[in-house]
Every structure is written in structure tokens, then in C-alpha cells.
Amino acid sequence: MHSTLAAPAPARYLQPATLPDALAALAAAPFTVLAGGTDFYPGRVGKPVDDVALLDITRVAGLAGISRAGEGWRIGATTTWRELAEADDLPAAFDGLRAAAREVGGAQIQNSGTVAGNLCNASPAADGVPPLLALAAEVELASTAGTRRLPLAQFVLGNRKTARAPHELLTAILIPAWPADARGVFLKLGPRKYLVISIAMVSVVAALDAGGRIARCGIAVGACSAAALSFDTLAQGLVGRTPAEALASLTPADLQGLAPINDVRGSAAYRIDAALVLVRQALAKALGQSTAQAAGATPGQTP
Ligand SMILES: Cc1cc2nc3c(=O)[nH]c(=O)nc-3n(C[C@H](O)[C@H](O)[C@H](O)COP(=O)(O)OP(=O)(O)OC[C@H]3O[C@@H](n4cnc5c(N)ncnc54)[C@H](O)[C@@H]3O)c2cc1C
Fold first, then answer.
1. 217 CA distance to ligand 1 centroid (A)?
2. Do β-strands 146-151 and 138-143 pair in parallel, antiparallel, or remain unpaired?
3. Which pTM does this prediction carry?
4. N or C terminus of the chain with fewer C-beta within 10 Å?
5. Ligand 1: which residue has its CA nearest to atom 5?
6. Residue 39 near ligand 1, beta carbon < 6 Å
């Protein structure tokens, strides 16, 4: 017996098994790419899906998993948050990204949701963007015309806006090699511990040289502007400093460019204050300093 309550099917649904087939489909007609669906389906609540053509990429061979790519690393487009959280053979530079993976939604979301989908959806509060910016990640975009690479900062352009052309598929996230002792940190401030849409979030990746001075550093702040921002000039300016010098040097002016919204989760002014405190705490943690040392740089500012 047929149920009259059957959900309407999408106008078209393709589930290609190979990358050439997926790219050929995207070149031939407009499709919405579907990975874990954890952004796509909630965004369609109350709206019919029978006007959408879906290209489900979850079965495309070669897009899954985390692998070495030369000196660096490659996160395939269908890699889920759970796979990332459980990848305990990754170097400590990934600790911030893996901490973000453990905080995205709950277990069900982490099981289905992909890191690449998080970037393509381009929410200002996307947890994957700051840790990947701090790691100096690039994205690989493929189409029938070939493959191009873009720094992540040039891919996520604004609220739900990316540099991806409609006929392109994000096939991988590429992360360069970091010094062996580099450590990544991710700090997310929200109104509660779980299932949090961030008020502000910060990621820092940093490594010290043999003399105990900063050798390399990446800093990014999310949920405080339309797209998360990478503070490359600030990070470069910390190279050569001791952790104490670096922590003492941070001022509100270093985070110029943040333009947070006022909403029920926090005012713009609060978000900017919180971001600076989080940057200090994340930098201290990445450099092996105590949080008290970070707080000592500016008494009284703890989110
Ligand atoms: C209850 C709940 C809690 C959540 N909590 C969090 C959270 O704490 N932090 C957070 O950051 N997010 C959160 N999310 C959002 C979501 O789970 C993540 O952004 C997730 O990473 C999206 O991945 P996906 O594979 O499900 O994307 P999908 O929904 O499949 O796709 C998202 C978008 O990206 C496009 N897309 C996906 N993959 C590709 C590709 N390879 N190439 C081109 N385009 C592509 C799709 O067309 C779509 O526009 C939550 C969602 C829910 C429902």
C-alpha cells in the first residue's frame, strides 16, 4: 500500500561513483551539491525539495579520508567531523581543528557533517574556518576544465558566500607542513557547553624555535565578522618574540577588521573584547604558557 505521506523527492537526484561523473554532471546542469546534508536539510525546513536537483557526492571514490600530501596533509571532501576527531595520528598542529571537530553539533552531526561542507556553507559561525585559516589551509576546486587551489581566506568571502563557481566541486582541503612541535588551539565562547553557535571563536597554531622564541604562528577569529578573519600581519609580528613578550604585546588594535553583529547571543562590543581575551588564551596555550599568564597581560578581562 502506498503512503500518502511520502516525502516529496527532489526534482533530480544523482549519486555518482566517480569524480569525472560528478564533474560532468555539474558542467551539464545546475545541481546543489549534497554531502552530509546537515546544513542543506535544516535550511530547507518548510520548503519543498521537489524543485532542487541534488548531486550527492558521498559515494564518489577518492574523496574520503585524511592522507599525507607531500610534506603536508589532505582532507578529502567527504571526510566527516567524526573522522577528523578520531584521527589521533595527526600532528599537534591539528589539535585546534580536532577540538573544533569534537564541538560541532552533537554525535549525529559529527557522523554525517563534513569539514568541506562547513567551508562551502560559509556561515560566519562555521567552526571549521578559524582552525583551517590558522593552519594556512588551501582548498582544491575541481571542474571539467581542471583543478585550481585557493588559500582558504580567498575562498570564504562572506556570509554564505564563497569563490566556488557553480560547476566546481571542492575536492579537498590542503594543509601545509608545520614544524613538528607546532601546536594548535581552538577556543569557542558560547552561552552553554554543547550545541553552541559561537559568540566568538579563536584558533591559534604556533611553534617555538630552539631558543624558545616564536618560529611560526597563525591566528584566526570567527563569528566576529561576515567571514572569519586570519590575522597574518599580527601573527608575523610575533615571530622572534618570547611567549611573554608576545602575550604582553597584544592590544585591541591588533584585531582591527572585526565587525561583529549585535544579537541575542552578545553585543558587538562584548564580542570584540571576548575575541581579544580568547586570542591571548589560545596563544598562551599553544605556546605552553598558563592561562594565568595570558590573563596577567590584561587583568580583569576574562570571558
Ligand atoms: C543540530 C546542528 C548543529 C550544528 N552545529 C554546528 C556547530 O556547532 N558548528 C558548526 O560549524 N556547524 C554546525 N552545524 C552545521 C553543519 O553541521 C556543518 O556546517 C557541517 O560541517 C556541514 O557539512 P555537511 O556535509 O552536512 O554539508 P551539506 O549540508 O551537505 O552542504 C552544505 C553546503 O555546502 C555545499 N557543499 C557541501 N560539500 C561540498 C563540496 N564538496 N563542494 C561544493 N559544495 C559543497 C552544499 O551544496 C551546501 O550548500 C550544525 C548543524 C545542525 C543541524
1. 28
2. antiparallel
3. 0.94
4. N
5. 105
6. yes
